Amino acid sequence: MVKRSVALAAWGEEGLLLVKRPEEDPEFPGVYGLPAVSQEEGESLEAAARRVAREKLSTEVRLRYPVAFGREERPGYTLELWVYEADLLFPPSLPEPRPGKTYYTAFRFGRPEDLKEAARTGSLCSRLYLAVKVGC
């Protein structure tokens, strides 16, 4: 089975937007990384990237372009992930969580180098964005 996802590298005046996963998250508990969604059937990559902003950050973005793609075998599925860069059009805020979706518990602004902890824990989108922006 293939799961397609889109992560958003959203930039504001303060820097790169980083989101914190819940402590009970099974993959990356309490880690700051890039916000992401699973691509829905028939949804374009661009629409999924905009949905990250709307659903996960209660904001809108101006998409720049996809900057990275990666594929990774995970238990029970293959993850295909694109990372889109974008500009925040409005300040983000965290919406109320809905059942069956991963929501974030906090956000902050930083730099691509701040994704190193998430990359060490196995975050594919963090590894991809670091490779493009920092070269590691």
From TrEMBL:
Residues 1-132 form the Nudix hydrolase domain. It holds the Pfam family NUDIX. This is NUDIX domain protein.
